[in-house]
Amino acid sequence: MFARRREQSAAAVSKVLCQLIDRDLVRTSVASEDRRQRAYELTPRGQATMKALRAHRQRAIEAIWTALPDADLEHFNAVSAELIARVESYARQEE
Fold first, then answer.
1. pLDDT tens figures, 15-53
2. Could you tell me the residue ranges of all domains in the chain?
3. Which of 7, 16, 18, 52 is the most exposed place for a label (fewest CB within 10 A)?
4. Architecture of domain 2-67
5. Cβ atoms within 10 Å, residue 21
């Protein structure tokens, strides 16, 4: 299901999950609601890693974005929205 939503192959998702398990970032168990399925959760090490990544991301956002004037941010948002609309329109035409 995750692979379909991310437009990735099940094998690619499985490979990444195995790497995360090998690094003790994620653990797996049999899902309680459907024993044919696996449940994945962050280990304590995985939780600490996510916390550090979030903090790093927040520092980067603050360093890059907060010094910009509001008018520049508003202009950037408008241009970004227009680009997104054009990309989505183009993608629909290509289907």
1. 888 999 999 999 999 878 777 788 889 999 999 999 999
2. 2-67
3. 7
4. Orthogonal Bundle (1.10)
5. 15
